[in-house]
Amino acid sequence: MMLYLHIPFCVRKCAYCDFVSYAGQADKIARYVEALLAEMDRRPCAGTVTSVFFGGGTPSLLPPAALTRLLAGLRQRYALAPDCEISAEVNPGTVTAEWLAAAAEGGVNRLSVGIQAVQPALLARIGRIHDFAQAQETFALARAAGIANLSADLMYALPGQTLADWEESLRAVLSLSPRHCSCYALTVAEGTPFGDLDARGRLPRPSEDEELAIQASAIRILGQAGLARYEVSNYAQPGFACRHNLGYWTREDYIGLGCAAHSLEGNLRRANPSDLAAYLAGAPFAVEERLTPEDEDFEALMLGLRLVDGVELSARAFARFQAGIERFRAQGLLEGAGRRVRLTPRGMDVMNAILEEFLP
Questions:
Q1: N or C: which end of the chain has fewer CB within 10 A?
Q2: How many CB atoms lie within 10 A of CB 261?
Q3: With pLDDT > 70 as the criterion, what percentage of the chain qualifies?
């Protein structure tokens, strides 16, 4: 079993962000922490918790005392495995030595640092509040606090970003010696500032060939530094793949706590209300859905194919998808023996188009 805690507070919203997060509402953090603890009381777990992930939003906006209270509350209510991976997303410019000391003392042993880019103009364009010097400081402070498992998050296909910019960002991040690196393509969502610009034709976007060149450079440059690609968007040193995200991609059960958090328990998916006031008022689940066998089979394939090693399908799922699997194998896009299926490097480049062919 895994736990996810959503911390929906930000200093300000980035131009691309469509996550459920709220700027300028830090005065609600204390109430939110109490609401999280109350939700933990309502949602016990009989098994051992192998992974905890604090996402957001900006978890590093929690005051150190609030973080300490949450971590202690988790240990009081759930059986955390001795080697439980406890990750937190943090943003440079919001991290202090005091926060990191509280995190380390409470058992946080992995940080995902939202760097995104290193060029000041690009950072300003996407709405980030930090510079690369603050990212360097975050890595140094984390190591001083005893947290050595550090991941750097980068974004590509940003408006105006060149291949040279991207490779400069990769090399700058590698100078920090991260154990892990995530490289996510910009997704332009409706209702965001970037979505509005894109709808008016005013958001410069890279071509498909330019995006593929960026992906290829990430595989090459990160691979040369010892960070191998293990998932479409993620790279790690041996033994440092993100345990929590691996759980998502292999459909482990997880409980999502907090505003807008999602859960998967068996074939039951749930989602908490995304409205902060409704969550604080104790509103019930906004979504409760029983997945059909067809849903489960497609999710197993969709999520498992994100992994470089692919997925071992159930006999039922393999029978359902076998015709399509054989067709894509013949085209050199899928490979694997028996019921194990994985994308070839060429297949990774067109993963979404392949998955569309398997939709129920």
A1: C
A2: 24
A3: 99
